[in-house]
């Protein structure tokens, strides 16, 4: 993995699709947790170890980025959980960003457990220094699914953190992973997820499907850790139709709110987008219309979708 040089800023390994316009700032490398069974993505992409970067290294990158994109109004902090590097460091980075760019929006990935640790006071400080939105891996609102998948968070932790973020006026973007409960627990997965979204009304809910990627024999990159549970029979993956049924159930259980729900990743078979207070019925209709297509047609669409991703 490429490290800092005096002329090229380091870049985060992954960014949310919605941050495609943003200037990307790498604060930490990899994931400090790195235990979620469904993930393993940093190891797969060649960044298996976590390390924080120094303020001086980050500041040098910000200077390089300022020379390249001086008018940046939107900035994003990576990798998986930059706030783990400490509230003091993040506040210094935020101050420097606002001094260096005409910034209107600064967003970051964060783990719920890290936000829980820094507490309401830490979150408040981040807001006062200009952090405007946090991308959170909710994944599921079901405690058992979170435990099995080793997410290291509980629905109660999500509730506490979300309440503090709302009080600090930091926007929340929740990621939900269809298929994460497997065939065994998909109803509970969706029921718990809908309950949390209804209770917390985050600004955004972003839907993805579980991706069980294989090891890469050429690069030697490891496959998805959850394949072990698939092989030993403790987790049965949903098929494509199963994840569409999950989406249908989720939409049935969600209540009107200002939350914007979007399937903004190409791995979703059916992609709906809209606000839960104005577009929920339309989204439900779209998913039902898909499920009412003749079975042969749905199968063809699943095949076609698989060949595209
Ligand atoms: S899902 Fe997030 S917290 Fe879990 S291992 Fe992957 S990057 Fe780390």
From TrEMBL:
What domain of life? Bacteria
> Pfam families, per this entry?
Radical_SAM
Q: Which residues form a coiled coil?
A: none
Could you confirm whether the keyword DNA-binding appears in this record?
no
Could you tell me which species this protein originates from?
A: Desulfofustis limnaeus
PANTHER family from the entry?
ANAEROBIC MAGNESIUM-PROTOPORPHYRIN IX MONOMETHYL ESTER CYCLASE-RELATED, RADICAL SAM SUPERFAMILY PROTEIN
Keywords of the record: Iron, Iron-sulfur, Metal-binding, S-adenosyl-L-methionine
Give the cofactors, semicolon-separated: [4Fe-4S] cluster
Put simply, this protein is called Radical SAM protein
Instruction: List, alphabetically, the SUPFAM superfamilies matched.
Output: Radical SAM enzymes (SSF102114)
| Domain Radical SAM core span(s) in chain numbering | 17-254
